[in-house]
Amino acid sequence: MSKRNELDKATPAQAENGLSRRRFMGAAALAGVAGATGLGSAVMSRESWAAAAQEARNKAHVGPGELDEYYGFWSGGHQGEVRVLGVPSMRELMRIPVFNVDSATGWGITNESKEILGGDRQYLNGDCHHPHMSMDDGRYDGKYLFINDKANSRIARIRMDIMKTDKITHIPNVQAIHGLRLQKVPRTKYVFCNAEFVIPHPNDGSDFSLENSYTMFTAVNADTMEVAWQVIVDGNLDNTDADYTGRYAASTCYNSEKAVDLAGTMRNDRDWVVVFNVDRIEAAIEAGNFKTLGDSEVPVVDGRGDTEVTRYIPIPKNPHGLNTSPDGKYFIANGKLSPTASVIQIDKLDDLFDNKIELRDTVVAEPELGLGPLHTTFDGRGNAYTTLFIDSQVCKWNIADAIKSYNGEDVNYIRQKLDVHYQPGHNHASLTESRDADGKWLVVLSKFSKDRFLPVGPLHPENDQLIDISGEEMKLVHDGPAFAEPHDCILVRRDQIKTKKIYDRDDAYFASCREQAEKDGVSLESANEVIRDGNKVRVYMTSVAPQYGMTEFKVKEGDEVTVYVTNLDTIEDVTHGFCMVNHGVSMEISPQQTASVTFTAGKPGVYWYYCNWFCHALHMEMGGRMLVEKA
């Protein structure tokens, strides 16, 4: 009988004694580790475990004035933002608005942000899942972070030097961009995007059947943020990742049944991983073997069924996460409704596409890990860490031993199981998506917190837990409450990110302000004046803490007013704000930045504007008046 089968058969007496099936499995796995490492044949005592856990917590402590070793970038879920944390302290450093409206910075309010959000196409919500850092030869280059919006079928790019969103792209022909990963080698040329839901084409209300419905895999040019090409697939795409050769990307795919109901999507015992041959897709487009859909000019290649550009590798069951090992050898697909993870050997894919081997010949291991495997991450030492949603655990297992077991050897590939709190989704180890995976820290993003924090009403925070994986055993060191609803995160060494302390005056972020000022014949660095163009009024002003260069201006009721503020301070961290009372207007202006906002002047009267970012001991006195006359 296999080790797994033995563990599944915990007796009622064991359960009555408090040794539940889950605890029994975890204890047995830990005992195996202890025996293998010469620590003894028994589970660690309570005292020794407590000492080890305290040691791990000490490693996570970052004292006042000290800096973290890693930047952590968290997706903000249905907040539509990205959150920046320091790791291992887990201190929140910044929130980067992306698809949301943020009154503190003016994102979604300023002209510059509206231009990026798409003007009339702007939505008020977003659903961010997967943040990923641009790469050069499989290593983070610190230039850009990319993030998806499942709610409105968009992706965004964030400049790391200023940590501001600079591009947003609407993906045509599809709905619900879920999985997002980047080409790793030779550099991030493409952003790969999975559209989850099938829709009819054309989607104009003329046909609601499934016969002409499908979804697509999309590649976006990372430099221009223009859509490069799309591939039609069978099934619903879930998560995706890329290899370390630049030739392949792969995506988990569920609903091979082509159903629209819950039960129907679970009928088949196997769905698939779709592998995309990037070189062949580019060659097909170069040869003109594509079509376009509707008014989109994006080349669309058909990758359904038996094609030159895709392969569908059968795996169990409703698979979810898809993760590439940092040594570049394996794609690992997590079974979700199967207790298994499927290990696909990447160097077999050339033979697969040349029809020299069968689809399942690429699967070299399928270890049973526990109930509800969702996502896998890696420590760079040959071990994988998989979240088990149903078991509320992280399972540490050895890939090489799993392959040996799959080939019939009697070997226990499970190294340890650790309880987490509760129902984990994504997990992420330090630098794990790059060649530099260092196996120091693991973040587990748990969907439920239940009893871990002070009660705050019916809506609970989630729980982001930090685990020390630098040794043989995982050690939980931190609980971090998180508001709705981070899905995933990445950890990047702090030396890989280079940020500006103040803006350059020629920064592209406010290029449109410079263009308008040039048309108006004014200098942003010195102008404090009002320019009227019919019922359009442009107000130029500077700011140096603690005062605006203009403390009063006149407009007429109903005028379209655009205010340009240039912060002339050159001192780091002296950010100014501009808030016009009773007009729904506020924005941030960081040192040497120009920002602008447009609004309609209200009823006749006096309206104060003030600095809403604390900048000086006389901050409260920094203000001015807009005088609105009758039209």
From TrEMBL:
Main subcellular location: periplasm
Binding site for Cu cation A2: 611, 613, 615, 619
Processing and modification events after translation: Predicted to be exported by the Tat system. The position of the signal peptide cleavage has not been experimentally proven.
Pathway: Nitrogen metabolism; nitrate reduction (denitrification); dinitrogen from nitrate: step 4/4
Cross-referenced PROSITE patterns: COX2, COX2_CUA, TAT
Family to which the UniProt record says this protein belongs: Belongs to the NosZ family. In the C-terminal section; belongs to the cytochrome c oxidase subunit 2 family.
Cytochrome oxidase subunit II copper A binding domain mapped to chain residues: 532-631
Amino acids binding Cu cation Z1: 320, 375
Necessary cofactors: Cu cation; Ca(2+)
Name of the featured protein: Nitrous-oxide reductase
Protein function: Nitrous-oxide reductase is part of a bacterial respiratory system which is activated under anaerobic conditions in the presence of nitrate or nitrous oxide.
Binding locations of Cu cation Z2: 129, 178
Entry EC no(s): 1.7.2.4
Keyword Ligase: no
Positions annotated to bind Cu cation Z4: 487
GO molecular function: nitrous-oxide reductase activity
Domain of life according to the entry: Bacteria
InterPro entries membership: CcO_II-like_C (IPR002429), Copper_CuA (IPR001505), Cupredoxin (IPR008972), N2O_reductase_N (IPR011045), N2OR_C (IPR034205), NO_Rdtase (IPR023644), Nos_propeller (IPR041114), NOS_propeller_2 (IPR041142)
PANTHER family (UniProt xref): CYTOCHROME C OXIDASE SUBUNIT II (PTHR42838), NITROUS-OXIDE REDUCTASE (PTHR42838:SF2)
Record's subunit section: Homodimer.
Entry's cofactor comment: Binds 6 Cu cations per subunit. Each subunit contains 2 copper centers; Cu(A) (binuclear) and Cu(Z) (tetranuclear). Cu(Z) is thought to be the site of nitrous oxide reduction. Binds 2 calcium ions per subunit.
Binding site for Cu cation A1: 576, 611, 615, 622
Keyword ATP-binding attached: no
Subcellular location as annotated: Periplasm
Residues that, per the record, bind Cu cation Z3: 130, 426
UniProt region (COX2-like), positions on chain: 535-631
